Amino acid sequence: MESITTKTIKRFDWILLLTMLCLLVVGVLAIYSATYNSGSSNLKQNYERQIIWAALGGVLFLTMAFLHFKYYQAFAYVLYGFSIVLLLFVLAIGKMGGGAVRWISIGGLKFQPSEWAKLFTIIALARYLSDHTNQIRSPKVLITAFAIGLLPMALIFEEPDFGTSLVFAAIIPSILFWADVSPLALFLIAAPFLTMIASFNFYSFFADMMLLVGVLYFVKRPLIFSAANVLLNLFVGIMTPFMWNSLHAYQQKRILTFLGLVSDPKGLSYQIIQSKVAIGSGGLWGKGFLHGTQTQLRFLPAQHTDFIFSVIGEEFGFIGAMAVLFLFVLLLYRGFKLSAASKNNFASLVGIGITTMFLYHAVVNIGMATGIMPVTGLPLPFVSYGGSFLLMSMASMGILENISIRKYEY
Amino acid sequence: MITNPNEHRLFSIPKKYIYFGLTAGLFLLLIWRLFYLQIYTTQKYCLQSQKNHIREVTLEPLRGLIYDREGKVLVENTPAYSVYGIPHELSHTPHVLDRLSGILNLSVSEIRKNVKERQHGRFSPVRLKRQVSFKEVSLLEENKLLFPGVGVWVDPKRHYPSSAHAAHVLGYIGEISTGELKKLAEKGYKRGDIIGKRGLEAEYDQDLRGKEGLEYVEVDALGRQIRKLKSEKSIPPVPGKNLILGLDADLQSLAENRLKGKRGSVVLLDARDGSVLALASMPDYDLKEFSGVITNKIWDKYFKNPENPMYNRAVQSSYPPGSTYKPIAAIGGLDSKIITKDFTVTCRGYLRYGRRNYYCWYKKGHGTLDLIHGIENSCNVYFYTLGAKIGVDVWADYSRRFHFGMKTGIDLPSENSGLVPDRQYLDKKFGKDKWSKGLMLNMAIGQGDLLVTPLQMAQLAMILGNDGLGYRPHLVIGIQDPLTLVTNPVKIDSFRVNVDPKNIQIVKEGMRLVVNGPTGTGHRARLPDVLVAGKTGTTQNPHGKDHAWFIGFAPFEHPEVAVAVMIENGGYGGSVAAPIAHDLFQLYFQKHPRQPNVSGEVAMKDKPTVHTP
How many CB atoms lie within 10 A of CB B483? Predict the structure, then answer.
């Protein structure tokens, strides 16, 4: 017993835990500052709520850290099925209510199924791929894996929650790549999506097609195969403008605003401008805690949730922003490293999926706050205010710890 | 079978390095971006963030006050109440609008319209009603909780505590018009500014208005004011300068009272420096009605009134001066050596000239008169004869030497320069040399095309009284700094007319007799203890009763005051205008009694013997 406990303590990734705790502290401080002057007593209590969520998350973290991963490996499909049912439920409420619904309210507590769907999809994918390691390059496995990933993604996109659905677009290829799915297959599957984005501009479309042709030439596959792919991409590129019209107006607007194709000074680009002003005016050292004028005078939209990074940038400056970036890099490095080190295929795949999710969230959230990525409404892990995502994130961290503790188990 | 994904490689690189590399690349992008925002272009964002939350607020300066020469306040500022509302809050509380409508006597739709038209932002207050009564204010203040988003402002407004109105002198203020803005934009005036519209308020606007101050306030994203900022860039407002007038409120008040019910004007000058002691024009307007919003009712009452109460008759109206102008022909004759003071004319009640008779006002005829008595009796036949003798050129020349046909340069806007008809003018009007010499006969007695302002006539009285020395008439004698209370006196411009003083003295002797002689037409201006000299005038007027004129100065020996009284359609100058001059002189000398040792000696002792015609 003692040797197991010692091993556990030794294999427990303390750096990962410490990084998460630091980010939680930064988050609570930033939320406190963001709502300090809000005038609404309800908003002012948000930092307290975040601490309570973090405490609950801590329990989840410890549970997941010490509950052997084989248990949720066993229940992977059940959990996945459960999250799909919840997503369908949310979608049904939304369709009946005639608007966007992302929450389920249980006894006054709001709960966002899409957050948990991310984790459960990762687990389900890992389970499926680890069960089929010897047929990993068979098209059937590939298609099934994609289906597992794309189903929740489609449901979330339909809510509509464009931002969260895009997280799957990062997680799925990342896990598949790690599971040793043919990189060419992944590229050819990703190609139509690349083409979709590239098709808005003739030159980028042309470059995209040249890349495709180049790769196809390099891998020397049968001509029919190559031609089919090129035709598919041509078709997608031409069809995209039509599909574009089926998007919600606000989704189109967000993408267009980001691309600089429309101007809306008080709309979405207002958020981006104010966030950039906040971060830029922070300078090297920042304006000091509770002294950010942009934050305290509430020029920042969603400043305690999606735009929390602009609070940090304004009040703690470049130094503070670098510290947060450093914490994330450390977290991601440890995450990828321990996932890669795990001897268990399932655990390794889950670890890669979770770390990729954090990578995507962190990069897109900070990129959005600094105006280099579209405003897709993604929270910053451990920092942004929000219960569902924090609980899910901390549970995910518990799983990473679990993987770390059991990295030598097959 | 794959046992450990880590053992798989892509192009012989362990796959985990691809994940590390991707992470590193994306974070390098973020670091570069943050460096760009927070280090490289931080200045730009600092400025933007400042602009975001700091608003410049202009602070209105208090407008300068206006005092009379004795320090009595003529114009001051008093607080007036305006009710304002915050559009954002009003839009959420329709029942508040209903309540407000009851208190302010405005319909809900009117309040809505005001909000809509004047709104600058959802959170900047909008004036709903100006000049709210104290009762309305107390109702609002007592029931504050019933009126969320509604408040009361204090705006200064002009107040006129003196019994002297001096409406035409003081003028009123109002919001700058588009036309004024166009002309004055380069002088720093901007939309919404309050500007002097008439009178001294307009003439001295630059001095009175002061300078706006600047203050910096912190606002939030909705434009709500959070706090005032201490900034070295903030400037306190500089209050406008005070004007010290030469006006004497008592004399002004008297002049106004004496004109009440008449149409006409009075100008009383200090003969020793040209400062205006009183300048009244009737009918006038009530400045109090112009101190707030000018309603259509007020506008119609004054601007559509056929009696033209907005018109300053003393300065803006010109009339034929009648007999008060006879001194000009007399001096012209003497100074150009065409006649001497002994030149006599026999008046039989009319003069035959050309093919028509020119009548004297005294149908029985004055008999034989010399110049002095011609003036005393205001004999028309004497001046017809004199006029014919000197001719248009000499007459027009001497008119100009006494500054007729030109502005006096008084510090009031829109002064009329009057008209001196000369050969050129008559040639133009009637054709070259096609005009009858008889015109000159009429002009010599101040009739015909000649036009003068009452102010010019007062100036003439001053010049004559001073033997040819004149001062530019002016209302403001000093400009006071309201902070240091140091007063800068206004420079006095003096001039001497190009006439031999001896000739003026001869005419003056006649004017002394006008008031003091046994047959003098202006005897009603006579004072028991101060020697007054003057000249009456009764101007024929094709449109109605004669205009009554009187000009004069006193004391005769060392004049202190000079006056011109003009009553439109008043009748005889001697019986209508002279008594007003009398009252003004009387009050003046009551307030400034003759000191026996200083000037008393000249008052009675040297009283010339009265000539009998």
Answer: 9
